[in-house]
Specification:
The chain is mainly α and 106 residues long. The protein is built from 5 helices and no strands.
Length: 106
């Protein structure tokens, strides 16, 4: 069966269903929530906690940082970068698991 015949959810599960990709997404989400909580709790306005989720999602997040600033844009950057990096992690894990031979499920 070709990829065009598979459902959208099957494709999402195939891309992000790997345990390493899911663990990475959970880590990125936890770092982002932590950074927001710390930044809200900092009354000086000088919190640099948002750097940690950006570094965790590098190098993709660094490419997307050329976009205008603000909390909404940082949220979009971290979200997109985490998804792209998780997809790459899942792809690498599948490639290593199959050891260079063709994937019969593809």
């Amino acid at each position: 069966m070709t990829d065009s015949g598979r459902s959208f959810f099957h494709r999402l599960r195939r891309v992000f269903g790997n345990v390493f990709a899911l663990a990475y997404l959970v880590l990125c989400a936890a770092l982002f929530v932590w950074a927001i909580v710390v930044s809200i709790g900092d009354d000086s306005g000088e919190s640099m906690a948002i750097i940690f989720p950006l570094l965790a999602t590098a190098p993709t997040s660094l490419v997307l940082l050329v976009l205008p600033g603000g909390l909404v844009m940082v949220t979009v950057v971290v979200l997109l970068a985490a998804l792209v990096n998780a997809a790459v992690i899942g792809w690498c894990a599948r490639a290593l698991r199959h050891g260079g031979r063709a994937n019969p499920a593809s």
